[in-house]
Amino acid sequence: MKCYLLDQMQEQTEIDKAGEYVILSDKQNWIRDGEKLGIYADVDTINMNGHFSKVETQSDYLFGQVSVPRVLDLFGARHEIFFFVNERGIIFADENDYVQRILEKIRTKKDTQAFTKEQFLYNFISQILKNDIQILDDYEVKIIKMEERITDDKMQDFHKKMMPIRRELLVMKSYYEQISEMGKELEENEDGIFANKRLKLFRFITDKADRLERKCGQLLDYSQQLRDVYQSQVDAKQNKTIELLTVISSVFFPLTLLTSWYGMNFKNMPELENGYPVVVVAAIFIVVGTVWLFKRKKIL
After folding, report:
1. Burial code of 212-237, b = ≥16 C-beta within 10 A, e = fewer?
2. Each residue of 259-270: pLDDT tens digit?
3. Which of these three, 113, 145, 168, is where a domain ends?
4. 125: how many CB neighbours lie within 10 A of its CB?
């Protein structure tokens, strides 16, 4: 367990009755450590499983969970953060030092003077979302490059490359929706744990998450438009191929009829003895005439 005096984020060895604290614990010891802040949690009413970010109001404390996707593996294990808040402070249950790294970043910032619970939670969640706009910008660059390759007719395996991007954007969009709902729940302040004059900080969290969610929505729309463009390009190529086959069939159909007619070899057909030159000329005339007609109709 690590303990910090909230207002200055100075590490402490003991918890006094006065003052507000931030405690860093783990899932095995958080109940015992939480009692030092007067948080007596009922484990039967708390769900600490699942990839979901939420805030729940209990009788005399607030329970929160933040499920942060890993950038390199959005469909794999997440950073699961659990926290409990009451009037005495905040306790975190951390399993992989992710919270510890965020706390160190917060402590090294210059604006850590006179922290309150509201300011700390705002800074904590903001630190989690800090690089997300750059992540979404990277997705946008990927989609733009794909668009350029489609325009240059150099795109290979489009659907195989686009589908993972869309799936990852859907995961991120759902994540930001949950963070936005968390901000709204914190701002409601049902138990009066937070000071009303600082509730606007939670609105800033909601606004930031909403902007990221809209960005995801825009990228999903962009990717869908790109899919439509690519499909139109594929359809145009197929139409050209079908058109070419139609022209070839139109050229050879009269020739097939001609050869079929003179392939009957009836005894009284006058052209059988000296008709070969006539058939050759007729075939050439049919081919030239058909090609000329297609050129005039701008089919070729």
Report:
1. bbebbeebbebbeebbeebeeeeeee
2. 777 676 666 666
3. 113
4. 25
In a domain, 70, yes or no: yes
Please give the structure tokens belonging to residue 58. 């209990």
| Angle at the Cα of 82 from the Cα atoms of 78 and 84, rounded to 5 degrees | 165
Q: Dihedral angle at the C-alpha atoms of 99, 100, 105, 111, nearest 10 degrees?
A: 80
In angstroms, rounded to a whole number, what is the distance separating the alpha carbons of residues 132 and 49? 24
Which two three-digit tokens encode residue 188? Answer: 């409601």
Question: Tens of pLDDT along 167-194?
Answer: 999 999 999 999 999 999 999 998 889 9
Domain of 35 in residue numbering reads as 1-113
CATH classification of the domain holding 79: 3.30.460.20
Question: Do residues 14 and 120 make contact, with C-beta atoms less than 8 angstroms apart?
Answer: no
pLDDT digits (tens, 9 = 90+) for 116-143: 899 999 999 999 999 999 999 999 999 9
Q: Judge contact between 142 and 161, C-beta under 8 A.
A: no
Cβ-contact 127, 98 below 8 angstroms: no
Enter the pTM of the model: 0.78
Number of domains in the chain: 2
Question: d(Cα 26, Cα 19) in Å, to the nearest integer?
Answer: 22
CA separation for the pair 21, 8 (Å, rounded): 10
**Residue at 54 is within a domain:** yes
Q: What is the amino acid identity at position 293? A: L
Q: Which residues contact 221 (CB under 8 A, 6 or more apart)?
A: none
Tell me whether residue 73 is in a domain. yes
Q: Examine the fold and report which residue of 113, 146, 173 is the final residue of a domain before the chain moves on.
A: 113
